[in-house]
Amino acid sequence: MSAAPAAAAVRAAEGKPDLAHSGIRIDGVTVAYDRNIVLDSLDLTVEPGEVMALLGPSGSGKTTALRAVAGFVRPVAGRVFLGDRDVTDLPPHRRGIGMVVQQYALFPHMRVDENVAFGLRARKAPKARIPEQVAEALEMTGMAGYARRYPRELSGGQQQRVAIARALAIRPGVLLLDEPLSALDARLRSGMLAELARLHRELPDVSILHVTHDQVEALTLADRIAVMDQARLRDCGTPQELYRRPRTEFTASFVGNANLLPVTVTDEGVDLAGRTLRMPTGEAAAGAGATLCIRPHLIGLGDGPNALRGEVVEIQWQGATHRLHVDIGGHRLKADLRELKQPPAIGDTVTLHFAAQDAVLLGSGVGDG
Ligand SMILES: Nc1ncnc2c1ncn2[C@@H]1O[C@H](COP(=O)(O)OP(=O)(O)OP(=O)(O)O)[C@@H](O)[C@H]1O
């Protein structure tokens, strides 16, 4: 080992990671259990100071990816870099990483301040500095007034704040969050979402990898979202890119609500059950099959460009909107319509429309790369 990595390792061990060189690079990482591949050649970079959400269905490999970065699972192939350091062979406690998991994982027999100090002691941080770092971490998470309580004397949300304080106390360059809000009830969760967003603003140098299966969490907190399915990375982009211009049907359906309708490419646009819709079709050849993706809230009621007539088969009042389910030649189109003074009834024939630029064409070489 040369002097520079050795020094970095010592800094990590002391809880003083080199923030200037933080950031995560996962390079072709494969993880297998009993020859069963659960993470397949993952390539992913989290820039210094960036929040990357790992979003995907249950069992897609999100937690495994996080655990590979933390050092709790050993890849069968690939390397993990934190900044310029290859940490693949380092044990977890030498990586200078803060980690928060779903189930607070506080030590029940230790007070809040002792829980928060635990990581610092384990890393042999200078004793004199521990109280100051503990106080600072509790302050950041709004738990300064609870230092002498035991975990059992705290609510679930408060316990999770302590877990976050413990992760932050070592002043990590990298923070790993594994579904940190999923054990909280809906009201607490939205409060904690705002708290995490604030923490991120206060820690602009910390790279955060945040595992979630909650798309609202991912859309709200992340600078970029990596979409995983069946052990593989399927897509990666900013929340806006993935929401507005998804490249695959999987992303379109997983990030936000989407109508996905089978269409055939024509010379003028696409054909949906005998109706011609005018839109750019890129390189796609006439006659090719494709999928039209249009978000329910981008559909309007009444005549307009790309008008589609159909029968209302279901109507749901959702407070701010009515969701209409309309049968268009055997395909169901969902439309979220605001401020409907006189909503149509089931069985009515309605006309819906959407702007060509709001629709995305997927498949057949037209958009899904
Ligand atoms: N220790 C283990 N031994 C064997 N298989 C495992 C182990 N840990 C995870 N797996 C398997 O690896 C796959 C990926 O699991 P992982 O926990 O990474 O998924 P996930 O996307 O985080 O799912 P969830 O959202 O449910 O937490 C799953 O099929 C899981 O059963």
TrEMBL record:
Keywords: ATP-binding, Nucleotide-binding, Transport. The keyword Transport applies. Residues 24-255 form the ABC transporter domain. GO terms for molecular function: ABC-type quaternary ammonium compound transporting activity; ATP binding; ATP hydrolysis activity. GO terms for cellular component: ATP-binding cassette (ABC) transporter complex. PANTHER family: SPERMIDINE/PUTRESCINE IMPORT ATP-BINDING PROTEIN POTA (PTHR42781), SPERMIDINE_PUTRESCINE IMPORT ATP-BINDING PROTEIN POTA (PTHR42781:SF4). Its EC number is 7.6.2.9. This is ABC-type quaternary amine transporter. It holds the Pfam family TOBE_2. The keyword Transport applies.
